[in-house]
Design goal:
By secondary structure, the chain is α/β, with parallel strands linked by helices. 38% of the residues lie in helices and 13% in strands. This is 6-phospho-beta-glucosidase.
């Protein structure tokens, strides 16, 4: 049986805005995430209208990271994916000098990880940016943000070059099409013209970040990160096959630019046919062409279907899709499709021929304590077991897979809905949607299961 490689990176993934709390401590500026008290599905507030939200404290990782890292090590992690809060380091985004307290905070986290032989895997921008950049520049709609992002990336690469060797640029960069305020700092009613112009600026910034990282940290690696939203044709009708191809192209466009270094023909056609005219400056395309990422990473939670018949579409949590009658759904309505992960891994590897990394996969569910105060989350174990089995199948298919970081190894605030009741973790956090709870940590049944998976390099996984 093909096993996971000995140098495989096992761990979990968290994001600053969903775990840290302390949104206004030690010089941190407000971020776009801080302006969404009910998650990315809610209209954002102005600075004056801002009300307290569950994310203001989150799970208090800002103060409790040492004990959480101990638990991660107990599970056997050799890798932790985490993000930097841009607004901790440049509170308004356009300062010439960084906030030392913010830089020192992440120094302390990286030092704590090093004590436990856990490699940090850092996302530069995970669904947040300094809110002042939205107020003063209109978000990524203004190409001045390219310069500000360059300064931020240069600062953190220089600061952490000896501590961090694995980097990602933008988290789920393709989600800007569905949540423009979260992705590029635009109003939710922004036009396609405005969104794609902002995306162009972000793709140029991505290319510059890749070059900066490769120059400052030559022994490091930097990748992109896609929301892996593979769509199947709803039927074998060729019209449905074309519909699926076009739906997939909407998100593969980002990966194509970040790996192949140019705008693909299908996207140029889309721009022509929809009256979208991307304003580019001299050197933009050259920057993109010279900065292919070192690896491709992605999240995978569910697949979807596409149909040429618009009446088949069903409203989803964030992305609308056609329901698949062959699959079950999670408590939040997400289709559960482990074999889709194997299909996606083969698809992306065939397309890009670059190493792949599964940086998010997990099950959000309502966990209940039993009569003994324990959490028997067999549903989460089944979900992750079945997905990891399919990742192992992809390895047997010849896919080059670097690692797996489950989403939310510890309960955190859900990004889409700002709920704590939508739990992903192997570690339970005693905090609830109404803000009550002691913040105490507790190991779930899945904690011990994942510990055994890592200890055995996946040999304990069960083919079901």
């Amino acid at each position: 049986m093909i096993q996971f490689p000995n140098d495989f990176l096992w761990g979990g993934a968290i994001a600053a805005n969903q775990v840290e709390g302390s949104y206004d401590r030690d010089g941190k500026g407000l971020s776009t995430s801080d302006m969404l008290p009910s998650g990315i599905l809610s209209p954002h507030q102005t600075r004056e209208e801002r009300t307290p939200g569950i994310k203001d404290l989150a799970i208090d990782f800002y103060h409790r990271y040492p004990e959480d890292i101990v638990l991660f090590k107990e599970m056997g992690f050799n890798c932790l994916r985490l993000s930097l809060a841009w607004s901790r380091i440049f509170p308004n985004g356009d300062e010439l000098e960084p906030n030392e307290a913010g830089l020192a905070f992440y120094d302390n986290i990286f030092d704590e990880l090093a004590k436990h032989d856990i490699q940090p895997f850092v996302t530069l921008s995970h669904y947040e940016m300094p809110y002042a950049l939205v107020e003063n520049y209109g978000g990524w709609g203004d190409r001045k943000l390219i310069e500000f992002f360059e300064r931020y990336v240069t600062t953190v690469c220089e600061r952490y070059k000896d501590k961090v060797k694995m980097w990602l640029t933008f988290n789920e960069i393709n989600m800007s099409l569905h949540a423009p305020f979260t992705g590029v700092g635009l109003q939710e009613d922004a036009t396609e013209q405005e969104i794609y112009q902002a995306i162009h600026h972000q793709l140029v910034a991505n290319a510059k970040a890749v070059k900066i990282c490769q120059r400052i940290i030559p022994d490091g690696k930097i990748g992109n990160m896609l929301l892996g939203a593979l769509n199947y044709p709803f039927t074998c009708n060729p019209d449905d096959v074309i519909a699926a191809m076009q739906e997939n192209n909407k998100w593969l466009f980002f990966g194509d630019v970040q790996t192949r270094g140019k705008y693909p023909g299908y996207m140029l056609r889309y721009f022509r046919e929809n009256g979208i005219n991307i304003k580019m400056e001299k050197g933009d395309l050259e920057s993109i062409a010279s900065a292919s990422v070192d690896f491709v990473s992605f999240s995978y939670y569910a697949s979807g279907c596409a149909s040429a018949d618009p009446k088949q579409k069903e409203v989803g949590n964030i992305v609308d899709s056609v329901p698949n009658p062959y699959l079950e759904k999670s408590q939040w309505g997400w289709l559960i499709d482990p074999k889709g992960l194997r299909i996606l891994l083969n698809f992306l590897y065939d397309r890009y021929q670059k190493p792949l990394f599964i940086v998010e996969n997990g099950l959000g569910a309502r966990d209940e304590l039993d009569e003994n105060g324990e959490i028997q989350d067999d549903y989460r174990i089944a979900y992750l077991n079945d997905h990891l089995v399919q990742a192992r199948e992809a390895l047997a298919d010849g896919v080059e897979l670097m690692g797996f970081t489950s989403w939310g190894p510890i309960d955190l605030v859900a990004n889409s809905t700002a709920e704590l009741s939508k739990r992903y973790g192997f570690i339970y956090v005693d905090r609830h949607d109404d803000g009550t709870g002691s913040l105490a940590r507790k190991r779930k049944k899945s904690f011990h299961w994942y510990q055994e998976v890592i200890r055995t390099q996946g040999r304990s996984l069960q083919m079901r």
